[in-house]
Amino acid sequence: MTTLPPRRRQIAAMRLDGVRPTEIAARLGCSANTVRSTWAAAKESFVRQGLLAAA
Questions:
Q1: Quick one: pLDDT at residue 3?
Q2: C-alpha to C-alpha distance for 46 and 11, rounded to whole angstroms
Q3: Best exposed site among 1, 28, 35, 51 by fewest CB in 10 Å?
Q4: Angle between helix 6-16 and helix 32-48 axes, rounded to 10 deg
């Protein structure tokens, strides 16, 4: 996870802890859609690194 950019890492950590996108958005001052797309990009990174199975 350390290879992710800081914001992506922050969102990924919160999602892995079970925090909802709307709550993350409120905490970070961005939209829930931004959180969802950033989380999707993080998951894609995890798949490429072999840390997560492709869906």
A1: 83
A2: 14
A3: 51
A4: 90
7-52 pLDDT, tens digit each: 999 999 999 999 999 999 999 999 999 999 999 999 999 888 888 7
Query: What is the C-alpha separation between 49 and 23, in angstroms, rounded?
Result: 28
Residue 38 belongs to a domain: yes
For 42, the enclosing helix (H) or strand (E) is helix 32-48
* HSE-up of residue 37 (Cα within 13 Å, Cβ side): 5
State pTM to two decimals: 0.85
Look-up: residue for tokens 């909802």?
20
Q: What gap in Å lies between CA 36 and CA 25, rounded to an integer?
A: 9
